[in-house]
Amino acid sequence: MESKIEDAKNGSRSPGNGGTFVHHAEAVWNERQPYGPTGLKGVTISSYAALCAAFAALGGMVFGYDQGVVSVILVMPQFLSRFTRVSETASGAGFWKGFLTAMIELGALIGAFNQGWIADKISRKYSIVVAVIIFTVGSILQTASNGYALLIVGRLVGGVGIGMLSMVAPLYISEISPPEIRGALLVLEEFSIVSGIVVAYWITYGTRFMGSEWAWRLPFLLQMIPSTILGLGILFLPFSPRWLASKGRDDDALQSLGKLRQLPVTDNRVQQEWFDIRAETAFHRQTSAIRHPKLQTKSAANSIKLELIAFERAAGGVHILE
Questions:
Q1: Is residue 12 helix, strand or coil?
Q2: How many angstroms separate the Cα of 284 from the Cα of each of 116, 300, 316?
Q3: Would you say 155 and 103 are in contact if contact means Cβ atoms under 8 Å apart?
């Protein structure tokens, strides 16, 4: 079994060779040709991948906006007159205000925890669409809230969408980015989060002068604009080559990689990265089969257990769920 892992690490799966591995370690590891320089100069050269990453980073803006908007809304007189439970004169207002704020974090935890297996099952692209739909439902509930209970539900549902986006958007960006500028493009996610917070502050600064309840309803409504753009626009972007390879769609992975790099699929650099991706996915697949042989049957329970094991391993723990 260990030799199979080494084969997967040092070779690639040949579509026309019955699924056997072809050794190409020298071509991939020792003679790798870069797509271009690192840093901003490399971003300008790989402009298509950079634009795709920037678009996917809208998920970070949605996250930042939703975090920033509630901090100002909670002190608006128009909001407090509707939700008297969190007004300064109400008994236990501090608890209910904190509970309202915490709901998005709880929802985000639920969303991030479940997004791993969803993204693996239906693709990074479509899981972003699912996240946007859930977030939109939460935003509608928040905008239309006429009571504290409905607002809490809206914050929880919206938080699930936020958590899913905060997990899958960086994953998608990392998998479509050229190796030389992957770190630079991942920074876009953090930049988008901060930008979303700033935009939320300025919008709520403007709407607080409105005399009606639209002072707080409008900011909740406006957060659906970037999320809708993301949900619709992502459908026109390429699938993650790594996800395609993990599903055995090697030819599709090559075509997606060529489109992302704006190079013919016969280009040596594209071929080398394609080999690398296929070898890596085969390596992880066989490693999982060896380490967790009882969890290889496709089922929701096994997917959840593997997700928990991944969380435990990331936290430095020892998995006990097999």
A1: strand
A2: 15, 20, 19
A3: yes
Contacts 24+ apart (CB under 8 A), 261-270: 261/35, 261/46, 261/48, 261/49, 261/178, 262/46, 262/47, 262/48, 268/33, 269/33, 269/34, 269/35
Q: Distance between CA atoms of 43 and 36, rounded to whole angstroms?
A: 9
- SS3 of 265, please? coil
pLDDT in tens, 50-90: 999 999 999 999 999 998 998 899 989 999 999 989 888 88
What is the chain's percent helix, strand, coil content, to nearest 5? 75, 0, 20
Which DSSP category does 29 fall into?
I
Place of tokens 């407090």: 80
**How far apart, in Å, are the Cα atoms of 204 and each of 38, 154, 207, 291, 297?**
39, 19, 5, 51, 50
**CA neighbor of 289 nearest in space, from 279, 300, 297, 278:** 297
The model carries a pTM of 0.84
